[in-house]
Sequence to fold (306 residues):
Amino acid sequence: MKKVLVTGANGFIGRHTIPLLIKKGFEVHCVDIKLPELRESYTCWHQIDLMDSEKMMKLMSDIQPTHLLHFAWFAVPGEYWTSTENIRWVQASLSLLQAFANNGGKRVVMAGTCAEYDWDYGYCSEKVTPLRPATLYGVCKHSLQMILSAFSKQTGLSSAWGRIFSLYGPYEYPKRLVSSVILNLLQNKTAPCSHGNQIRDFLYVEDVADAFVGLLESNVTGPVNIASGVPVTLKELVYKIANCLDGYKSLKLGAIPIPESEPPVLLADTRILFQEVGWRPKHNLEEGMEETIAWWKSQLKASPVK
Fold:
């Protein structure tokens, strides 16, 4: 039987992979430092700090998964770009990788980031664009990717690395762009934004999860961009939200300054994902936004978000 261990399974992306993996016939083992309040009876949850290498190795020995989907990382908003916790997560990830291989693991997919690329190029292609991360977060992710690649060649382990671009959807941190605009408009507040001329590639989080599951099941190895392949300005993005909520008057474009480090264009070459993995998004931007708005409405109804 295919047996997968998902780290960060209670996180923004990880939680959405669980039903998809179950449908694919995997025995799913979910690992997180914090367990969800509601847990399906047909999944196995393990509350473990991956920094505790002894407990992690025992878990790996007990489960002996055939597949590993690794999302867990330090992700505190506003801190993760520069935090030295990134270095500890490289160490924990390497211990996890080695334990997986030592216990007969066959296929591993880890989550990378578009921050590994040199953003001066704007359009990011796995085989062409220089890898020149400008933050400690990007450096640590890219360092792990290089070690994973070398380790896989040395041992014969099948591995892939999904580089995530911009995403949005249910369970996103409330102060991120999409969530903050939705929440402000739902609560009849002003929604301050930058000028909105930046061009990005946004993908609905359920599609991000689905792309990772597709990548895990494929034979594709090495880095793969996880993105929609559809460019959109941030101005267009927030207008779509406003259109759903009749909130154009509450948008305040130009109210927030843009950091000098923020690139005007950051897009993904998705040919490997689309042609080699054979994956396509199931939601367009309008559909994903409607589902995200509906989720935030349910959250506000249950408990107001400040």
